[in-house]
Amino acid sequence: MHDGEVIEVENVFPDERTAENMMPVDNHVIISSLGDHERTVYGHLRRDVLVRRGQRVVAGQQLGWTASSGRSTWPHLHFTAKWDFQFYEPFAGPCRQGTSYWADQASIPTAPYVRDFTFSARPFGGRKDPPWDEAVRTGTFVQGVRDVYFRIELAFFDGGPMRVTFLRPDGSTALDGDRPTPLQGYRATWADFRERLNLDRTGRWRIRLAAGGKTLVDAPFDVVASAKAVRNRPPNTITARLVAPSPPQCVLDTSLVTEDPDFQIVRYRYRWFVGGKRVRAVTSASLSDVLRRDRVRSGQTLTCKVTPSDGKLSGRTASAAVRLR
């Protein structure tokens, strides 16, 4: 985002819409920049937008929170770019050849990958499905013959059979076979599975899911002797790195499959420090956070500390620091 001025704000509509109750207008912010030639639109935001009309904003400044307001069937950011009121595509790639209009264009995936994976001892359905996800997630099952439910959320996946493999702690195969992939959802797709398994040994098991010859999931889960041994565990270790052009970005390196040993939804507490003084603190599910560029100057030490949490237990804090030149 360039420095600019907020020229329009809608901030009164509900945060959550579905195909059955969509509204024509969403919560959005429009920024004017580069001599009023460029206008960028940030749509489907949560109601509590953080800026107001006429406000000057700088690159890296937070405008609001992603939601599903207006004509939306899924929480997402609808970003639009216009030059002299004409739409243009800022990404360079298959849709537009030439130079990217982004200062640092992220790579655009085209191959199938997994956005999320979870186990449950209970069936999925209703508000247990994305994006609301009130499922009882777990990474531990009690020994014996059990129904094991698992869900995979996919991107760039067109369907087809899924190879499902369960491995015992000694590496022997408990189950191996192709399964149909009953895709659900619209903006993102997911599939639910159920297997009746004889979890005949305690210890660390593994599940592998593959499609088209590519392994999409390789995840551990535990089998214990009794329900008393089932316990919640903190999120797995993460690492953080700073990308510090302008504006600075704190990026997490973690697995979208095994963020948490119990496959819980993980949120991250970002804390930014300039010269030892905290200048920003925010909690989100995002794997990166950005600091507005006017918060730090050349010669100062910038530090980002990130603590993962499953809502009950916190994992180890990751830290990254850089002295700006």
Could you characterize the architecture of this molecule?
It is a single chain. The chain is mainly β and 325 residues long. It folds into three domains: 103 residues, Glucose Permease (Domain IIA) (Distorted Sandwich), CATH 2.70.70; 117 residues, Immunoglobulin-like, CATH 2.60.40.1930; 85 residues, Immunoglobulin-like. Helices cover 0% and strands 44% of the residues. It contains no helices and 22 strands. Strands 4-1-2-3-5-6 form a six-stranded antiparallel beta sheet, with no helix packed on it. The radius of gyration is 22 Å and the shape is globular.
List keywords for this structure.
325 residues; mainly beta; Glucose Permease (Domain IIA); Immunoglobulin-like; 6-stranded antiparallel beta sheet; 5-stranded mixed beta sheet; globular
Topology at a glance:
Layout lengths: L3 E7 L17 E6 L4 E6 L12 E2 L20 E6 L2 E2 L25 E8 L16 E2 L1 E3 L1 E12 L6 E6 L5 E7 L9 E11 L3 E9 L2 E11 L14 E5 L5 E5 L13 E8 L2 E8 L3 E3 L10 E9 L8 E6 L2
Parallel strand pairs: 9-15
Antiparallel strand pairs: 1-2, 1-4, 2-3, 3-5, 5-6, 7-8, 7-10, 10-13, 11-12, 11-14, 14-15, 16-17, 17-20, 18-19, 18-21, 21-22
Given the C-alpha coordinates, what overall shape results?
globular
- Listing every helix as H and every strand as E from the N terminus to the C terminus, the arrangement reads EEEEEEEEEEEEEEEEEEEEEE
Major sheet attributes: 6 strands, antiparallel
**Helical proportion, percent range:** under 10%
**Number of helical segments?**
0
Alpha-carbon distance between the two ends? 22 Å
Average pLDDT over all residues? 92
Task: Assign the CATH architecture of the largest domain.
Answer: Sandwich
DSSP strand (E) fraction?
35-45%
CATH class term of the largest domain:
Mainly Beta
At the fold tier of CATH, the topology name of the largest domain is Immunoglobulin-like
Structural class: mainly beta
List the uncertain runs: none
Query: What's the number of extended β-strand segments?
Result: 22
Please list the strands of the largest sheet in the order they lie side by side.
Answer: 4-1-2-3-5-6
